[in-house]
Each structure stands twice: as C-alpha cells, then as structure tokens.
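I need you to check the entry underneath: sequence plus fold tokens. Let me know what the token row says about the fold.

>
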Amino acid sequence: MKQRIGNAVITIDLRVCIIPFALLEICNHFKQMQTGDIIEVISMEPGIEKDLHCILPKNQYEIVCVDAPLAQRGARVVRLRKIGEPTGTRQRDGSFHETL
C-alpha cells in the first residue's frame, strides 16, 4: 500500500490483503480524506465496485476510473474521488436530513 499526502492519492492493493480488513481500512481512509482526494483500489475481486458502494457513504464520492491495466493478472483498478459531504443534520435515529 502506498500513500501520497497533499492532493492525496491513496492506493490500497487488495491483491495481498484480507478483504474484510482492507475494506475497513478503505472506510477509515475515506473518512480522513478531503474533498477532491482520490483513493485507488487494486483488486482481484470482480465485485469490488459493489463492495465499495456498500461500505462508502452515498453521494460523497464519484467513480473516476475503472481500469484493468493489470488484466493479464486479473486485477482491476478503481479510482474514487471524494466529492464532499452533504449539508444537513444527522438525527438521533441515524437518518440524515439534508439542508436545501
């Protein structure tokens, strides 16, 4: 895994990781990211995009690129950009009410 701070690009290589722990690490990194920062995930799992959609906050990221430069080895690269947090208030029941 490599990191670059300042216009951050965080690369997490799941090819050599235990997936549940790596997904937790992705979640933690995402929380610390600033708007515009990019996280790059390299994985052998064909369903990695679905996993990322399940663990990351909705409407706070966009998929910048899905690529297979390592296709000869079966790997995929997914790049996500943090686009900011919605404005509003979090309720006690966990729901979120957006301010318009």
User: Anything to note?
Assistant: The domain at 2-98 is CATH 3.30.110.40 (Translation Initiation Factor IF3).
